[in-house]
TrEMBL record:
SMART domains: AAA. NCBIfam families: 3a0107s01c2. Coiled coil: none annotated. Pfam families: ABC_tran (PF00005). Residues 16-257 form the ABC transporter domain. PROSITE patterns: ABC_TRANSPORTER_1, ABC_TRANSPORTER_2. The keyword Heme does not apply. GO terms for molecular function: ATP binding. It comes from Dokdonella ginsengisoli. This is Phosphate ABC transporter ATP-binding protein PstB. Keywords: ATP-binding, Cell inner membrane, Cell membrane, Membrane, Nucleotide-binding, Phosphate transport, Translocase, Transport. PANTHER family: ABC TRANSPORTER I FAMILY MEMBER 17 (PTHR43423), IRON EXPORT ATP-BINDING PROTEIN FETA-RELATED (PTHR43423:SF12).
Amino acid sequence: MPAAPSSVVDASEVALSTRSLSLWYGPRQVLSEISLDVPARRITALIGPSGCGKSSLLRCLNRLNDEIAEARVAGGVRVGDTDAYAKDTLVHDLRRRVGMVFQKPNPFPLSIHDNVAYGLRLLGVRRRRELDERIEAALRFAALWDEVATRLDDSALELSLGQQQRLVIARAIAVEPEILLLDEPASALDPAATLRFEELLHELAQRYTLLLVTHNMQQAARVSHFSAFLHGGRLIEFGDTDALFTNPGQRQTEDFITGRYG
Ligand SMILES: Nc1ncnc2c1ncn2[C@@H]1O[C@H](COP(=O)(O)OP(=O)(O)OP(=O)(O)O)[C@@H](O)[C@H]1O
């Protein structure tokens, strides 16, 4: 694939890339020719006004838009060496490699243990000991183990929202993804849980590539290494977060981050 015009990183560090990615819902085009290289093991924030296509872009990356009958995609998405839209790409494998966390925590109505075991069992992990070890490792990495170790058989729905969001992260990382797509994952959390969650994002970025949609500019500036600004379904600017926030290259970016619109 040719290099993205907005490329800011060495190709060896790219975990996921899009080339001229466009998306339509029926006749309406909502993404136009997006070419983006997402750096590996870094946090990239996707920012932009409501309706600019941030969630739609995330859903193209693990092919969740396949579930929307009228959605049509053009252009390319690569995850590592895999062409996400190739005929022989297995969608369930792609979604294991590219996990997703939504705004509202969505634990299954199962026990805490079985939520994290879910994907592992689908992968064929059956032995109790291996399951338990991997569940503990995932819960520890998601900074939830200490709070749930003695109540793994309780319903996940009894956890607080902040705990549920960390459980969903544990569920996602238990199957060893490469990339986590996070769609406003902290917006339902209170300020203390949000701070805690942001610390967790930093921990996660040591091992995984994170792509984070956020409406909160302070959060984008605080937690992300790179930022991509979308407007009207187009990628307007992509770069190092500090540089983009202090010295935006485009007028539209400046207007957005200074709160002049959106
Ligand atoms: N399933 C769908 N069918 C048709 N149109 C859709 C669908 N989902 C989103 N859209 C439209 O696509 C455009 C982009 O929406 P999207 O949710 O991706 O934007 P966003 O930047 O994530 O917005 P927000 O910040 O408000 O969450 C919007 O105009 C929206 O109405």
